[in-house]
Amino acid sequence: MSTLHYSAAENSSDSDALGLDAVVCHCLKVTAAEIKTAASLIERPTAACVMNLTGAGGGCTACHRRIRQMVANQCPAASSSPIICAK
């Protein structure tokens, strides 16, 4: 099982650096691929929506910051881009 090394993740602003099989939520075993897939299914993804779809973040909450970063990297805020994130 692949694990996320927090120091490497915190030093990287690119969620792709994790690798899709990296576990983002250790409590519920949710991977980066699951987070990215959930975000791609939502027209205007938010971390809360992604967490609701995947179940990630429902344990100790240590992954919340990383999930927010992943969602922000996958779909920049509307104020910085006129394109709606829908893949």
Can you summarize the main beta sheet? 2 strands, antiparallel
The CATH architecture: Orthogonal Bundle
Number of DSSP strand runs: 2
Level-1 CATH class name: Mainly Alpha
Structural class: mainly alpha
Q: Which percent range fits the helix content?
A: 40-55%
From N to C, what is the helix and strand string? HEEHHH
- Oligomeric state of the chains in view: single chain
Task: Describe the structure in your own words.
There is one protein chain. With 87 residues, the chain is mainly alpha-helical. It has helices at residues 6-11, 32-41, 47-54, 64-74, and strands spanning 23-25, 30-31. It has a single domain (6-74), classed as Orthogonal Bundle (Arc Repressor Mutant, subunit A). A two-stranded antiparallel sheet has the order 1-2. Strand 1 and strand 2 (30-31) form a beta hairpin. Helix 2 crosses helix 3. The protein starts with 5 loop residues before the first helix and ends in a 13-residue tail after the last helix. Mean pLDDT is 76; it is low at 1-16 and 78-87.
